[in-house]
Design goal:
- By secondary structure, the chain is mostly beta strands.
- The protein has one domain.
- It has 1 helix and 9 strands.
- Strands 6-4-8-2-1-9 form a 6-stranded mixed beta sheet. A 3-stranded antiparallel beta sheet has the order 3-7-5, with no helix packed on it.
- The relative contact order is 0.30.
Length: 181
């Protein structure tokens, strides 16, 4: 990962928005990669043409609570004939899918499998497990494949919240697009 890769840096201060509403320091970071279909019990089974997988939780993306971790996640889609819909946390629609399901999707053109688009990254804390639904728009049966690349951060609550608020920090918004400076 390069210095200007868009990930948070060790020593930075972050403000975790709702539901936390507190300042934390990035103590340590380490990269991670995870690909669906590589686990002992598959997240997705095959999806026929015109069918959907139904929303499936990606439990491997549930950060630890003790010690507290923060995940910054980018995701890519393998099959160009599939549309993916996301809920973060699992019960909350994102990218407009609660209003019009046909506009709130990500596909391989928008975020390729091995080169996930940072415009669609999201942050996760403990119990903010994302769920994905695959709609197969292609002429053949597929097994949905997602690849997640990101950074796992060890974070510590800053005891002097007032001083942290007056300093330089980055605001973290959960469950939505994070393309902010």
């Amino acid at each position: 990962m390069s210095e200007n890769d868009g990930y948070l840096k060790e020593g930075w201060t972050v403000y975790l928005d709702d539901p936390y509403r507190e300042y934390y320091k990035i103590v340590k970071r380490e990269p991670f990669d995870y690909e669906t279909g590589e686990e002992d019990t598959a997240v997705f089974s095959t999806v026929a043409f015109g069918a959907e997988s139904g929303f499936r939780n990606i439990d491997q993306l549930d950060p630890d609570k003790d010690p507290l971790h923060l995940f910054q996640v980018r995701w890519g889609v393998q099959d160009t004939r599939a549309k993916y819909y996301i809920k973060i946390p699992a019960g909350q629609n994102r990218y407009g899918v609660d209003e019009d399901k046909e506009i709130g999707f990500i596909n391989a053109d928008r975020s390729p499998f091995y080169d996930p688009n940072p415009l669609y990254e999201f942050f996760l804390m403990h119990d903010w497990v994302p769920a994905f639904n695959c709609k197969n728009t292609g002429p053949v049966t597929i097994t949905p494949k997602l690849w997640f690349r990101g950074m796992k951060y060890n974070i510590e609550r800053i005891s002097d919240q007032r001083a942290a608020a007056s300093g330089v920090h980055r605001k973290i918004v959960f469950g939505g697009l994070t393309n902010t400076p």
